[in-house]
Amino acid sequence: MAEAVILAEGLTKVYKMGDVEVQALRGLSLQINKGEMVAIMGPSGSGKSTLMNILGCLDRPTAGTYLLDGEHVAELSDDQLANVRNRKVGFIFQSFNLLSRVSALSNVELPLRYSGITEGRRERARESLIAVSLQDRMNHRPYELSGGQQQRVAIARALVNKPAIIMADEPTGNLDSKVGQEIMDLLTALNRDSGTTLIIVTHDPRIAAQTQRTIRIRDGIVDTETA
Known about the structure:
It is built from seven helices and ten strands.
């Protein structure tokens, strides 16, 4: 039987805007298994961003249950959520989100610093950069790197804590099609070779087609799932 790394049941999320309540999620349920590579798609206003914030432990649902790698996280405090997020989730963003004044190596070390890890920290960061073929760019700052290289640094940073899951939000959105495909090839190889669970939010059906399964969100619920 497949082992679920994400198991969400009946998630609702209500935002209060003055006297108005906006229901972003409406009893959404989904399961993502360990080692899967999944795309999440949906139009603006579908609840996709809200769902990703909850799955990534950046927010909590109004109601429903959420298990991340077997741990109940729906009702954790902000500090507890931050701890789970740092241990179990790696993020890759469209805009890279690198610190411009420090080296690629120092950028990759950041999650380890936040975790309070000191022993072997630099070596782990080096290994992560080697895994994305940036062994000759470790001491370069982001402005000295191409867009594709910056995204590789971001991927190395997401990997360095060996998280249960990596969430990539439009990871090729700021790249041309050739470099974007190189990044997708890298992510696919990481999933295949290391069994890293990957969730990719994308508007591009060509990106979604390279994953194992596409979950489409509409009006705060799962609309369709296609393999």
